[in-house]
Amino acid sequence: MGHVRMLRVDYPQNWGRLRELDFGRLAKFKREKYCCNMEWLPGTLGSEGGGHLVTFDTPHFAKAPLLEDMDLLREYLPHAESQAITVIAYLNLHWYSYEFAEEHPGWEQVLRDGRPYGRVRPLYGNGTTMCPNSPWREWAFKLIEEAMRTGIKGVFLDGPAVYPGCCYCEHCRKLFEERTGREPPEWGDWESPLWREFVKFRSETMVRFLRDAREAAKRVREDGVVFINSGAWPNWEVPRDVRELAPYQDFSGAEAFFHLGVEVDPYFQLRTGKYLRASGRPSVVFVHHAQGVWHYLPLQGDEMRLALAQTLASGSNTWTALINGELLEREEAWGPVRDVLKVADEHPEAFEGLEPYAPVGIYVSSETALFYRSRESGVYRRVQAEAEEDLVAKGGAGARISELSEQKATSDALARGEAYGVFSMLTHSRIPNRFVLGPDFRDLQVLFLPNAACLGWEEKDRIRKFVRDGGAVVASFEAGRYGPEGEPAEDDFFGEFLGAEEVHGTFPLEVREEYIRLRQGFGSFRPGDLVPRPTYCLKVVPSEDTDVLASFLEVTGQHYAPLKGESPYPALIVRSYGKGKVAYLPALFGEFYRRYRDGTVERFVVEVIRELLDGELQVEVEGPSSVVCEVYRKEGTWVVHLVNCGGDMKRPVDLVPATGVKVRFEKPEVKKVRALVAGRELAIAGGLVEVPRIDVYEVLMAG
Fold first, then answer.
1. How far apart are CA 107 and CA 101, in angstroms?
2. Partners of 516 in beta bridges
3. 297-318: per-residue pLDDT in tens?
4. Sheet with strand 547-553: strands edge to edge
5. How far lies 573's CA from each of 471, 482, 500, in Å?
6. Burial class (CB in 10 A: 0-12, 13-18, 19+), 142
7. CA 51, CA 47: separation in Å to the nearest integer?
8. In angstroms, rounded to a whole number, what is the distance separating the alpha carbons of residues 220 and 150?
9. β-pairing, 472-476 with 580-585?
10. Which of 50, 350, 424, 484 could pair with 456 as two cysteines, CB 3.0-4.6 Å apart?
11. Which of 418, 408, 404, 423 is nearest to 452 (CA)?
């Protein structure tokens, strides 16, 4: 299918506006100004609970009243095809009016107390949602078939979703009882094996629905495209796991929306795209052209440029949505999009058929996302950053967390924060990396297990074999300490593989004068150097065959206190295992970095990884660390994506152009480098190339 640049345009203020548009002129405009080659047309309305109102002619479903006799899909299709735009339909499968629900009793998702979810927590302030195990599913599959009969290429399914607290409807109860012989359990009983079965049941509900939806589309068009919002990370509460969904969809896509007033991950779209790519399907990152929840205002220009540049650099396809279609022809809307996407439009060779160069893998454990609840009681306190202001020290560890659901939420945050933080450290330090969702360890030199707490026997065996054969593993905190459903592991992965014979609990949760001291130097660190101690740390006893490179100091417990001596507990142990190496960090360094962005912690973790790499990196970047580098290979050619993330200290950003950027290629056969955005050849000497000013984005092709 090649590289895809998707566009969605809605008119929620007045859907009747669609009857007034010149489709031929607009299709040409979208192709030229938005570089669009795949468009999502509304097959059902995406607002005001209009998931049951269609935009095309069919005797089986109600037409959106404002469209009157218009058949949007069939009328627009030839105009799009004349501009080489593939058309798919957006189908809203999660948001319905209360009137529609009342016409179909028994279809709504239901909470444990019997109340419909959408009546207790109205969707977007007005509306309800249907259960994918109810007869509504057949209604939805018929809708997909009817949309496909219009001649379009495929459908994007916006939903369904199994919502928090759901579903306890009669249909879910019956299916669960057939599966287990028991009624569904109380919500959030994390001590119960039956609850873990319910968590799996909810996740499998989504997989079954997508599988059957795909079959419905393929009945009409064998080459039809079907995909769903897979989520930007595995999740149990609104269950979506891209690894499990991938076999049944043609794209792995997820939202990576910008929101005002919310702390924004500097690499949000990059991380989302790389996570989705790991599914093995073509990936697409969804970016609203909106000021967060102010949908009728366009996203600030540099934020849109940055989001699209990160998406392209991740190796993903792009998706841009204008919820306010009246903005479509304003340059403030199309200008930032075209600024970035024109390079992909003009140079498809730099975006298709790429293999990532990524010697470091970050393992994503879906089982950890579903079932991890730490059994270390010491982690369950509320933590606030320490600060000194007006001669008063504030923050630190607070109230204990005892409720099981809150403990699960805390564990989720620790696992997710560790993985996100490790990704951010590697990206900021320009260590080429990729996410790993399963057994695909090819071309990896180092595999990072960021608090991948819940691992099955087969996973652990694959990891052991990877190291025995000469690879290296870096594991943190409780990696592998639990089985695949969150139960304490019965094997000796901690001792036999990681080299931690015993765990004596946790250090107190402090965010102040607590340190790690280096015993041995490595990289830029010398013996005796100090590193801030992360908030969450285990007290482990190392096995005799480990090499202790750093130790936790004894707890000071206050500000400005003289440092105490080394504790008996290591902060970094390294051991040989077969032909490879294992490094174990009994602390959440990534989670700490994600919260506090401490540069010493970043350097500590990154230099552990560099020590384990086999030789020099093939491509390295010199210059401002705000410039992100993603490297790919294609038929003997290096493709290097450079994204300038440097700008204002608060989001949304105004970007500051990056200068002084140099790229070094280790392979001497690289003789020619072309900068695609700048549109010129670059001089190369001794493998070193100086890149012209980067406003937002540059792509180098070198060979």
1. 7
2. 531, 552
3. 999 999 999 999 999 999 999 9
4. 433-436, 360-363, 446-449, 472-476, 580-585, 566-577, 547-553, 515-518, 530-532
5. 17, 20, 9
6. middle
7. 8
8. 10
9. parallel
10. 484
11. 418
Identify the CA nearest to 141 among candidates 67, 55, 66, 208: 208
Answer yes or no: is pLDDT of 390 > 70.
no
Residue 567 pairs in a beta bridge with none
Separation CA 663–CA 689 (nearest Å): 5
Strand 673-675, strand 697-702: pairing: antiparallel
Token pair 């297990």: residue: 449
Widest CA span in the chain:
81
- Can you name the residues that pair with 237 across neighbouring β-strands? none
Q: At what angle do helices 599-612 and 589-596 cross, to 10 degrees?
A: 140
Give percent of the chain above pLDDT 90. Answer: 93
At 392 the pLDDT is 62
d(CA 510, CA 552): 13
* CA–CA dist 389, 462 (Å, integer): 50
pLDDT tens readout for residues 597-621 = 999 999 999 999 999 999 899 999 9
Summarised one tens digit per residue, pLDDT across range 521-573 is 999 999 999 999 999 999 999 999 999 999 999 999 888 889 999 999 999 99
Q: Which ranges of 262-403 does DSSP label H, i.e. alpha helix?
A: 268-277, 301-313, 331-346, 366-371
DSSP 308-347: HHHHHHTT-EEEEEESSGGGTT-HHHHHHHHHHHHHHHH-
SS3 at position 275: helix
Query: Is the distance from CB of 51 to CB of 94 less than 8 angstroms?
Result: yes
Q: Fill in the DSSP letter of residue 66.
A: G
Angle subtended at Cα 439 by Cα 435 and Cα 440, rounded to the nearest 5 degrees: 55
Is it the case that residue 391 has pLDDT exceeding 60?
no
User: How does DSSP classify residue 279?
Assistant: T
Q: How far is CA 3 from CA 41, 315, 542, 592, 657, in A?
A: 19, 9, 50, 37, 27
DSSP character at residue 327: G
pLDDT grade for 383, boundaries at 50, 70 and 90: confident
CB 371 within 8 A of CB 484: yes
d(CA 429, CA 597): 12
Mean per-residue pLDDT over the chain, rounded? 96
The sheet carrying 661-665 orders its strands as: 619-622, 661-665, 688-691, 684-685
How far is the C-alpha of 82 from the C-alpha of 27, rounded, in Å?
8
- Torsion angle of C-alpha atoms 662, 665, 668, 672, degrees rounded to 10: -60
Residue 5: CB atoms within 10 Å = 26
Q: Tokens for 425?
A: 């450290």
pLDDT, one tens digit per residue, over 489-532 is 999 999 999 999 999 999 999 888 999 999 999 999 999 999 99
Write out the two tokens for 701: 């092709």
Closest CA to 647 of 661, 627, 667: 627
CB 515 within 8 A of CB 553: yes
Structure tokens at 199: 């968590």
